[in-house]
Design brief:
The complex is a heterotetramer, with two copies of chain A and two copies of chain B. Chain A has 13 helices and seven strands. Chain A is an alpha/beta fold. In chain A, the strands form two sheets. In chain A, strands 1-2-3-7-6 form a five-stranded parallel sheet, with helices on both faces. In chain A, helix 6 links the parallel strand 2 and strand 3. In chain A, helix 1 packs across helix 2 and helix 5 packs parallel to helix 6. Helix content of chain B is 39%, strand content 19%. In chain B, the strands form three sheets. Chain B has a seven-stranded mixed sheet, sandwiched between helices. A five-stranded mixed sheet of chain B has the order 9-11-10-13-14, sandwiched between helices. Chain B is globular. The chains are: A alpha/beta, B alpha/beta. Bound molecules: thiamine diphosphate (2 copies) and magnesium ion (2 copies). One magnesium ion binds next to strand 4 of chain C. One thiamine diphosphate sits at the interface of chains C and D.
């Protein structure tokens, strides 16, 4: 049984990610956001469930599809938006953009523009914690495509031989851009790759917030016991193409419909209504609050100043 | 038939196509001519490539010669080397030159050295197509100019085309080369149009092209810095400064003769490079010129290059990091003043 | 049942590798061989059994510990020795040395100084054959240490999704230099890593020439049927340290003794004597012939001229 | 306390140790001072390193701070980056610089850019120790000099010590640096002995050292080319040619002032580099000098460098590929003749 508070918090996050991405796509179409933008739409339950099961002191490592991880970890929406708009008030002073947001205040070690490159970074964070004798778990997010980068196997093995507190969260959304996982792996059950390395590995329904939460909580407990690493494959599907400008025509309609019928946000709302007996009005209030914070953040980002070119050049000279 | 500017113009039939189409034609033509040629990379088959360079190859040549790969750059590049060693002519695409940093063991330790290490018995006729430079807000891991790394490695050829005509003729020559070739495209040039003759032709590797001849100053540049130099040269002409623009087109082999000749003629050299100044190819070309044309130089060789920083996301900051037309104009002006 | 001819041929190879390595170590001590030298002593049955089961048209990819693979594939001993001595008559004109010998006349694509780097090369050779519609298997030799290089997992996966005719021959000699496999893998049964990638994988006794031969023959047949790739882990142990100058004190005496009691050369000799009913005299004659060829090769290599520095510099100028 | 040649001599207590021991002392001292410092790499713990640089660290600091790794260079380098981001100070060993080609994504795309990409919020205080250069018959994949690659990357510092004294003081400074540092050792220098004081000291990054002062010609070199230049300088002295030998000690940051000053003084510069000529650091230094000291140069800057080829196995061929003492002497002689 979950407390109403827990389910409320989770739903708030699910809804925050959903509305953030939806709103940002509008901003992108308006030309206010430039460069790369990989929406997390349809995968919200993974970041939300995983992060809800972690402690503040734990680390997460994100990906190029990283807004959801940021928000679930508690990032400030307005600093995220400011970054996406390339403003000085953004998480990276406008220097990183969507693919490079990191938030050390929430131990989010950052997104990455190189698919798979974050996996060893997270293993190193866990290694450092072990050396310092600190009880910290590192949850490393990555997707099916990254599982074909050799560092996945290498880094998982490092975590295994050093018994590191690492949760490898494989967000299997079944595509790397337009390439279906079936075309680049004999088995779409990527968790099986962990078994040969002696790593406890399993799959979960990535659209079910509570299943993700439970399995992550159990995995984190094992990691704190020195029984890590753990490979958790969360099955999911994108609601959009790979990036904002990808119509995603290669995604079969029936599959997309199936996953949309299992919309993680809807599922989360139902848990709140049924399990926690929240009233529709309560849910509306939560949603309204999220939307208001988002609009304020958009205003903040739009109004806030761009970084100074002069200061930048000065800094480069003195580097 | 190999070509230079004059024959280019002669050959040109007023047919204007985009650089990415020119590359596509080069691939299709060579694949028709030689069954050993095949392409592989991320999304090159079904998607036709992220920049549409390989569109249609899957349909015409089938899945064995247009191969989509997993995100396993080191290994599919290594597989290309292995295929080349055993008689194929692979054309591998590494989506961004930034990702080529994942494949340098296979490219530098294996491909570049294989022929040498085997006493000449083996050879690696492969092309690694990749794409670099600053785009529009792609940030630090998708905007690098890394030609200097390949330039330093014995055993690799390095092609850096600036026009559709050159791109097509050079890619065809690269595919026919028996040594590994790194073919560096620029993301901002794919949709640039230019004249490309209908009939087949080659552009020889190692022949520079004087894109504009002039007498006052020599501008040396390649890839996306060529259009900027040419635009700057036109503006400078209005001020009575007559700039020559030399495009090496291939950095390895480098056409030193054409470069030295121009330097001796104008006595005044500006090298324009998008990559960061420190350790860039421009420095090497400058070191060659000062050695070969020391007594002809009226002033030190000037290098205009990218700033010593990763590329920022913000568009204004990004712009400030790489040479713009105005930077070139200012540099040449001050240079001509230094002289007089 | 094996023909006497087959068992004779195999024993000849086992003995040729054993005497080649032993003799070369002497030459090394005399300062006639320089640079790196990684003896194959104790692992002879793997190269011999695998290569005996392959066709001439098949490819092999070798390693830094590659002399055995060369010889088993039918290389000319005198050109190998000339290379080890850095002579112009060597396989690489004295430019490669021990770690870079390739022999295209036997489809041996070469040794490698980069651990693991040969694996994708072999996969590419098999890919090329498939494109050309040729029936050729690529047998790729590598050892336990290389299985921790990410290209092992990546390249095995490429071979799997493209159904390539590849036999991954994992020579598990239990050490990477002085690092025991147990220290860098939770399971010493490295073949298990193939299962998660949907690759048929198994282990064999790497010291038993006939087991290696049989299993390779079956694997090759499957590959020719389009049922590749196959991961075959051959368990073995070095009789020496990692290289000529490594005393290998870290190797436990009892383990070393155990494996020496299972000496692949002795086992091969027994097969020849018992299975093929060869007489001790016949065996002696085989050995004598091998020894004589070796001594002639040594003489050839010692007497043959060094490469010309002038010609080399000229070549470099014109490169 | 930071040091230069004079204080070096002052500090030196007649204690001669090998360069590898000097490095070992630097590591042990910094590990004692700062619990965040740890070493990892192939065989660095139980074996004490293939070149014995990390001997004894496992015994003193235990398996959590002296870590043996699998042959997974990309990932243990990436793990070092992740540890550094979260507060540790890793010292990673990549056994040969040739293998560093496996880790450039983690080093160049991650470590070098992380601070910048995060708007200064993050930092990567790590040292990547590696080892390069020609040895004795180690052939093409174990003999490269690749400093030019790191030199070109904004965000990386680059150290190339030539003496035990410098090696120790520079490694300690590198470990204390808050930016990633590539520390390039030379395989032929590990057993070279030199004076190293017993008390602790630092050598600041970015300060060149004039290893020999002279008036006729400036020799600029680093790493294993320094002993050769010094030996050549002594022979040249007998002929009445007084050579100055400048050792930048760190290529990034580069002490341009000391280099330019010496160039202006002698008007005659020879740069000696083991790496291949094309695209090497020597070219960049030459391009800087011709820019900053143009009017002081009596002759073009001469570069003596490695031949444009992979390194062969045969010892005579190998020798012919990299600058020898005699090559330096000949070059300087002809140069001084050119002048007079
Ligand atoms: C090493 C590397 N190769 C290729 C790319 C280009 N790229 C960006 S995102 C992407 C797809 C990644 O797929 P996956 O890992 O499944 O993540 P998803 O987009 O599904 O979240 C690719 C190929 C890259 N960024 N890095
Ligand atoms: C990528 C790489 N890392 C490190 C080395 C140094 N090295 C040479 S041989 C060796 C051990 C290889 O172990 P394994 O793969 O088990 O082969 P074995 O020596 O047992 O035959 C190492 C670490 C190398 N050559 N390449
Ligand atoms: Mg995916
Ligand atoms: Mg081994």
């Amino acid at each position: 049984m979950y407390s109403k508070e827990t389910l409320t918090k989770m739903y708030r996050t699910l809804y925050a990610i959903r509305t953030f991405e939806t709103r940002c796509i509008k901003l992108y179409r308006q030309g206010l956001i430039r460069g790369y933008f990989h929406p997390y739409l349809g995968e919200e339950a993974i970041a939300t469930g995983v992060c809800a099961a972690l402690e503040e002191r734990d680390y997460i490592v994100s990906t190029h599809r990283g807004h959801g991880h940021c928000i679930a970890r508690g990032a400030e929406i307005k600093k995220m938006l400011a970054e996406l708009l390339g403003k000085a008030a953004g998480y990276c002073n406008g220097r990183g953009g969507s693919m490079h947001i990191a938030d050390f205040s929430t131990n989010n070690l950052g997104a990455n523009g190189i698919v798979g490159a974050g996996i060893p970074l997270g293993v190193g964070a866990a290694l450092g914690a072990k050396i310092r004798g600190e009880d910290r778990v590192a949850a490393i997010f990555f997707s099916d495509g990254a599982a074909n980068n050799g560092v996945f196997a290498e880094a998982m093995n490092l975590a295994a031989i050093w018994d590191l507190a690492v949760i490898l969260v494989l967000e299997n959304n079944h595509y790397a851009v337009s390439t279906p996982i079936e075309q680049v792996s004999r088995s779409a059950d990527l968790y099986k790759r962990g078994l040969g390395y002696g790593v406890e590995s399993f799959a979960v329904d990535g659209n079910d917030i509570l299943e993700v939460y439970q399995k992550t909580a159990a995995a984190a407990a094992k990691c704190r016991d020195g029984k890590g690493p753990i490979l958790m494959e969360a099955k999911t599907y994108r609601h959009t193409g790979h990036h904002v400008n990808d119509p995603g025509q290669y995604m079969p309609k029936e599959t997309l419909d199936y996953y949309k019928s299992k919309d993680p946000v809807k599922i989360g709302r139902n848990y709140l209504l049924k399990e926690a007996k929240a009233s529709p009005e309560e849910v509306k209030r939560i949603e309204a609050a999220v939307e208001q914070e988002l609009e304020e953040a958009v205003q903040f980002a739009v109004d806030s100043p761009a970084p100074s070119v002069e200061e930048f050049l000065l800094e480069v000279e003195n580097a | 038939m190999t070509a230079n500017t004059k024959t280019e113009l002669a050959a040109a039939t007023g047919r204007n196509i985009m650089l990415r189409q020119a590359l596509n034609e080069a691939l299709a033509e060579e694949m028709r001519l030689d069954p050993k040629v095949f392409v592989m990379g991320l999304g090159v088959a079904e998607r036709g490539g992220s920049y549409k360079v390989t569109v249609g190859l899957l349909d015409e040549f089938g899945p064995l010669r247009a191969i989509d790969t997993p995100i396993s750059e080191p290994s599919f590049t290594g597989a290309a080397v292995g295929a080349a060693i055993t008689g194929m002519r692979p054309v591998v695409e590494i989506l961004f030159v930034d990702f080529s940093l994942l494949v340098l063991d296979q490219l530098v330790n294996q491909a570049a050295k294989f022929k040498f290490m085997t006493g000449g018995a083996g050879s690696v006729p492969m092309v690694l197509r990749t794409q670099g430079g600053v785009g529009n807000g792609l940030a630090a891991q998708h905007s690098q100019s890394l030609e200097a790394i390949f330039y330093h490695i014995p055993g690799l050829k390095l092609v850096v085309p600036s026009t559709p005509y050159d791109a097509k003729g050079l890619l065809k020559s690269a595919i026919r080369s028996d040594e590994p070739v790194v073919f560096m495209e620029h993301k901002l040039l794919y949709m640039v149009e230019g004249e490309v003759p209908a009939e087949q032709y080659l552009v020889e590797l190692g022949k520079a092209d004087v894109k504009r001849s002039g007498s006052d100053v020599t501008l040396i540049a390649w890839s996306n810095m060529i259009p900027r130099c040419l635009a700057a040269a036109e503006k400078l002409a209005d001020e009575g400064i007559d700039a020559e623009v030399v495009d090496p087109r291939t950095l390895v082999p480098l056409d030193k003769d054409t470069i030295i000749e121009s330097a001796k003629k104008t006595g005044n050299v500006v090298i324009v490079q998008e990559a960061v100044r420190r350790g860039g190819v421009a420095s090497d070309i400058a070191s060659i010129i000062q050695q070969e044309a020391f007594d002809y130089l009226d002033a030190p060789i000037k290098i205009i290059a990218g700033k010593n920083t990763p590329i920022p996301f913000n568009l204004e900051l990004e712009k400030a990091c790489v040479p713009q037309e105005s930077d070139i104009i200012l540099a040449v002006r001050s240079r001509v003043h230094d002289k007089g």
